[in-house]
Amino acid sequence: MDLGMFAMWVVVGLVAGWLVGFVMKSGGFGLTGDLTLGLVGSIAGSVIFRGLEISPGAGLFALVVVVFIGAAIMIVAQRKIWHACA
Questions:
Q1: Which one, of 58, 56, 37, lies nearest residue 48 by Cα?
Q2: C-alpha–C-alpha distance, residues 36 and 10, integer Å
Q3: 26: which DSSP letter?
Q4: Could you give the dihedral angle defined by the CA atoms of residues 65, 71, 74 and 80, in that order, rounded to the nearest 10 degrees?
Q5: How many angstroms separate the CA atoms of 83 and 44, rounded?
Q6: How confident is the model at residue 58 (pLDDT cuts 50, 70, 90)?
Q7: Cβ(24)–Cβ(75) under 8 Å?
Q8: Which stretches of 1-86 are DSSP H helices?
Q9: From its phi and psi, is residue 77 left (phi > 0), alpha (psi between -120 and 50) or beta?
Q10: What is the pLDDT of residue 85?
Q11: Which 8-state DSSP code applies to residue 29?
């Protein structure tokens, strides 16, 4: 892992958090919570996929897709499993 890949995880995770938070309006922790969950999910998704050796060196598009999937899964899981107290 290099600095460029980590920066991609961060950028795509934040964008994914914002997009999923925008699409799924209610039940979340707000913009900051969605961005944080997107960031954590992007890093977790990328680490899991790299550990399974599903996309080693597959290119930038594959990295963006894997990171976005991880971030979206994290936010959807938060919305479905543990709801925010409003």
A1: 56
A2: 10
A3: S
A4: -80
A5: 21
A6: low
A7: yes
A8: 3-23, 30-51, 60-80
A9: alpha
A10: 54
A11: -
